[in-house]
Design a protein that fits this description.
By secondary structure, the chain is mainly α. It is 52% helix and 6% strand. It has 21 helices and 8 strands. It has helices at 32-35, 49-72, 79-98, 104-118, 124-132, 134-144, 151-176, 201-212, 216-233, 243-255, 261-281, 310-321, 330-346, 350-354, 391-396, 398-403, 424-448, 461-472, 477-484, 500-507, 535-551, and strands spanning 13-14, 21-26, 39-43, 361-364, 367-372, 385-388, 514-516, 519-521. The strands form 3 sheets. Strands 1-2-3 form a 3-stranded antiparallel beta sheet, covered by helices on one side. It has a 3-stranded antiparallel beta sheet with strand order 4-5-6. Strand 1 and strand 2 (21-26) form a beta hairpin. The protein is elongated, with a radius of gyration of 33 Å.
Length: 552
């Protein structure tokens, strides 16, 4: 099967006069006779290059899929399937009549056109009249299902559809005259044998992504999964892929494509399972073939990450107060100075901080807050939240820093207005690439400080530490979740809101870091005194404690 990804030389073609972009491509020699032309040309209906690229990919997929269908050859239909197409056309016209789309004059002509076919006319003009009316509905039905039939089968379909449409028009005539008695022949069609529609993988993913409101980053990561699946199975019909074939695909990804098991589970299997589940809910499929599939993760590859230790946290925060390289770009200097501190005192995801804009820092109910919002960039579940700023951040001068910044991004350089894509998804993806690069710079910098343990994320370690320190300080668990943007645990938790005035007392429970110049330390934890029950036991415990301290 030809690859669905477009050849490297194909790209939107700019019309020199209209300024609009087009899809142009030479038709393969083995398809020219069927297509009826040596080239295909289709307008992309836009003058914007980024939008043209997106439309180009959609058109390319449609054309590739059609050509693949042609190469697979004609499809043999049973008598029942052919008759069921007549039933589909009968239902189509009855539904139109229910919506008052019936014309005595117009449908009298269509009735006569059907008569030509029923009586097996050989007059080309009469056949042309049928093809331009009823024939168009047949074309749409077959094309939507990717059904390619021989001329002989098409004649049989035309006959059965002509009798069905004539029957439906007779019902319309009765309704027009006030007779709404049931059609005694309405149940003659074998509707159970109707040829099934092709569930195109890439188009289905587009529909799912829009309905689920997937973030641009998730769309960008998941869409290639379905391209890969289509390549592997050799066709673009999700309805024809069973659990066994999916299992073969997962094995191929692990062995032949050499992808990591965690990636296969969390990206490939997760995306396919989600889309199939959506099709089941929408009653397009009866079951989800990916539901019971699992990917075994090697021992040690799926363990939980840990938080920064006191020493690691203090090393990062101390470095943030130190001198940065002279050749470092201003927005990255600002990020290294403030992003670690904001993560430490909010527990936010690093890119929720690197995407902050000047307008996302303001006073609410007399409390300084940072507003985490999808308007600025990517936010998990697209849920806004206002996080109160710890007074230590204000005392260090964060508000003064924000006030001195121009409108817009604080920690990355925005895309110039002249280069902004018109398409909102393209615009969001390209903006995300910029603030994510800032997060990546922070990660590299943290590793350069000697924090190289792979069990702790160079930025995610702050989220784990915030949760631990919050519990240590006695913060309410549900408030911790709300501050960090973790999902509600019960339906009741989703009622109402948690404004800054509710969250601020919890933030104040956090013990501030101690800053002395560029040296940051933490307040010593309380020394707990235990009663071991006897002087001998106490002495033994203290001696052993001293031994362990001496051993390091």
């Amino acid at each position: 099967m030809p690859a669905l990804d477009r050849p490297i030389e194909l790209a939107p073609w700019l019309h020199p006069e209209s300024g609009r972009y087009y899809y142009r491509r030479r038709v393969p020699s083995d398809l020219v006779e069927f297509i009826g032309s040596s080239h295909v040309k289709r307008s992309l209906k836009t003058k914007d290059l980024s939008q043209a690229k997106r439309e180009f990919e959609k058109v390319h997929r449609e054309i590739e899929e059609r050509w693949q269908g042609i190469r697979r050859g004609v499809r043999a239909l049973t008598w029942e399937e052919i008759a069921s197409i007549g039933g589909a056309m009968y239902d189509l016209h009855i539904d139109r009549f229910k919506k008052s789309k019936f014309s005595i004059h117009g449908h009298s002509f269509i009735y006569s056109y059907c008569g030509y076919i029923i009586n097996k006319t050989k007059d080309e003009y009469e056949i042309k009249l049928f093809n331009e009316t009823v024939g168009r509905d047949i074309d749409v039905f077959l094309d939507e299902r990717g059904i390619l039939v021989s001329p002989r089968t098409r004649k049989s379909i035309d006959y059965h559809v002509a009798t069905a449409v004539a029957q439906a028009i007779e019902v319309g005539f009765k309704w027009f005259g006030g007779d709404f008695s049931p059609d005694p022949k309405a149940d003659r069609f074998p509707r159970h044998a109707k040829p099934s529609a092709t569930i195109r993988a890439l188009d289905t993913f587009d529909h799912y992504a829009k309905e689920a409101e997937l973030s641009p980053a998730t769309r960008k990561r998941w869409e290639p999964v379905f391209v890969n699946l289509v390549r592997f199975v050799g066709h673009d019909d999700l309805a024809r892929i069973d659990a066994d074939r999916l299992a073969d695909w997962l094995d191929h990804l692990r062995v032949d494509a050499e992808r990591k098991a965690v990636t296969i589970r969390d990206v490939y299997l997760a995306s396919v399972r989600a889309v199939y589940g959506w099709l089941v809910v929408r009653r397009k499929l009866k079951e989800n073939p990916a539901r019971d599939l699992k990917v075994k993760i090697p021992a040690g590859h799926d363990k939980e990450m840990r938080e920064f230790s006191d020493a690691e946290a203090c090393r990062i925060l101390s470095a943030s107060l130190g001198q940065q390289p002279d050749d470092l770009k201003p927005h990255l200097k600002a990020a290294r100075r403030w992003v670690p501190w904001l993560c430490a005192y909010t527990g936010a995801r690093v890119n929720e901080i690197t995407q902050l804009r000047r307008e996302d820092v303001f006073e609410d109910e007399g409390i300084w807050i940072v507003h985490v919002t999808p308007d600025a960039g990517r936010v998990k579940d697209r849920t806004k939240r206002k996080i109160p700023l710890h007074p230590h951040l204000v005392r260090q001068g964060f508000i003064r820093f924000v006030a001195g910044c121009p409108e817009g991004a604080l920690f990355y350089v925005p895309i110039p207005p002249s280069d902004l894509p018109l398409d909102p998804i393209d615009r969001e993806v390209r903006t995300a690439e910029r603030f994510k690069r800032t997060g990546e710079d922070i990660a590299v910098w943290v590793r350069s400080l000697g924090i190289v343990d792979r069990d702790v994320g160079p930025s995610h370690g702050w989220r784990h530490r915030f949760k631990t320190e919050g519990r240590r300080a006695g913060m309410k668990e549900r408030m911790l979740d709300a501050i960090q943007g973790h999902a509600s645990r019960t339906k009741a938790d989703r009622y109402g809101s948690r404004p800054p005035s509710v969250l601020f007392p919890e933030i104040l429970k956090l013990v501030p870091y101690v800053v002395d110049g560029t040296r940051v330390t933490v307040t010593d934890a309380p020394a707990y005194v235990y009663d071991y029950g006897s002087d001998d036991a106490e002495a033994s415990a203290e001696a052993f404690k001293a031994e362990r301290r001496k051993a390091g």
